[in-house]
Amino acid sequence: MSEADDCLFCKIIAGQIPSSKVYEDDTTYAFNDINPKAKVHVLIVPKRHYANVAELAAADPAELAHIVEIAQRIADERFHGAFRLVFNTGLYAGQTVFHVHAHVLTGEVLDE
C-alpha cells in the first residue's frame, strides 16, 4: 500500500471522507478545517500526493504558485484580501497529515 492509499487528504479529495468544500479545480481542492484556528481556516491541498511543501516545490512549482493564488482568492472573498498562509513541514513543525496542505487563516484581524 502506498502512502497515498492511506492518506486522509487523498480520501477527502476522492470523496471517501466528507468535507466542507470551498474550492475545487482539476489539480487542487480546498475545504474548511474541522478545528479552525481563525474565523476562516481553509486547507488547500494539491490533488496529487506530495508529503510536504518542499517536495511540492521541487516537483511542481506551478502548483505551489496556484495554491497561493487560491489563498488570495479565498481571502479576497472572505476578508478584504488579508490572509496568513502556513505550511507545516515535518512532525516537529506540527505537520500531522503528511499530504502537503496550506492553512489559509483570515476572516479577522490576526495576532502576530
UniProtKB/TrEMBL annotation:
<dbReference type="InterPro" id="IPR001310">
    <property type="entry name" value="Histidine_triad_HIT"/>
</dbReference>
<dbReference type="Pfam" id="PF11969">
    <property type="entry name" value="DcpS_C"/>
</dbReference>
<dbReference type="InterPro" id="IPR036265">
    <property type="entry name" value="HIT-like_sf"/>
</dbReference>
<feature type="active site" description="Tele-AMP-histidine intermediate">
    <location>
        <position position="101"/>
    </location>
</feature>
<protein>
    <submittedName>
        <fullName>Histidine triad nucleotide-binding protein</fullName>
    </submittedName>
</protein>
<feature type="domain" description="HIT">
    <location>
        <begin position="8"/>
        <end position="112"/>
    </location>
</feature>
<dbReference type="InterPro" id="IPR011146">
    <property type="entry name" value="HIT-like"/>
</dbReference>
<dbReference type="GO" id="GO:0003824">
    <property type="term" value="F:catalytic activity"/>
</dbReference>
<feature type="short sequence motif" description="Histidine triad motif">
    <location>
        <begin position="99"/>
        <end position="103"/>
    </location>
</feature>
